[in-house]
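user:
I keep going back and forth on a fold encoding question. Separate attempts, laid side by side, tell us more than any discussion would. Would you put together a sequence-and-structure record for a protein of your own picking? Write it directly below this note and I will take it from there.

assistant:
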Amino acid sequence: MREYILVFLVAASVTYLLTVIAREIALRTGAVARVRDRDVHAEPIPYLGGLAMLGGLVAAYLVARELPFLSLSGPFVFRDAGVVIVAGALICAVGVLDDLFELDALTKLGGQLLAAGFLVAFGVQFYFFTGPDGQVFSLDPAQRALLTGFLVVATINAVNFVDGLDGLAAGVVGVGALAFFLFCYQLTSLNNTSRATTAALLAVALAGACVGFLPHNFNPARLFMGDSGSMLIGLVLSASAVTLTGQFAGSELSQGGAGSQASLAPTLLPLLLPITILVVPLLDLVLAVVRRTRAGRSPFAPDKQHLHHRLLEIGHSQRRAVLIMWMWAALVAFGTVLASLYSGPWVVAALVGGAGVTVALTFLLPVLHRPGHAVPAGPPA
């Protein structure tokens, strides 16, 4: 665990420091977010935060290779992690071009498919799934490529869609990456296997990069991650889940903590994790596509009706809207991991309690802060 914490700190520190350089590059090259009707920022903000996040991921990867425990891990740990980093650099480059020249939607989709194809070509893909009874469901090459490509591209676009408020995308993905790291680490601990896995390494590095970027990106933001960042972290999140596939037998995956029999979810979690973590932005994505196509517009045509816009409309401030969506992301991500590894009344109580608090803060805070609902002051002393 200590080496993973060091990897997290390296990714966070390097990302934090490189944001200054990324901001300067953005200002010099004109990669600046202009103020548009659908935006909530009031003045132009530089893009290219993805360059700093990529630097943090690369630094974390290089440091991990030199650590005593991680450096002695299996041969595929760093090989697969390296493939994901290179694919991340590729999609980050596409994002930089978009931040500079505003590429059309089809060109960006082509870049996303190219990065997903790179992962598949170098072996980072789904191979098989195992059931609790040990039955193996193998995938043929076409199924592997299609399933992997769909998951990666869908996650990239979900993160891109949710990147609408200062700190929102970095926080949601950071929370999800941390939850997935804890799942990977605890799963290896419960099954007495090596705690050095590609998924855990990528997840903890991604969480660190998101945390290092947030001080510059939280409202009022001094730097946006842009498409270079949102597509990068979406790819790394989904690819880290893909790398976990097939590393544990079904009987091991279904064995929960303290000897309890957990649900079937661990078997499918590598496939479901990006969906469960990003359930809110994915729902936003689906609603946006339906809303725009029903209006006769392109599914990629921007508007100002995303979920974060609706939170602003019901009375939340920008900061509070972001924190609320972080809470929803944490509830779903950590709730999924908890239900996957453990069972019992305390799990249900924790999930119900967390959901109740999140719902209350989402809908009651705007009411309490409206004019006319303020708590009356007491008599003067």
In short: DSSP finds 15 helices and four strands in the chain. The radius of gyration is 21 Å.
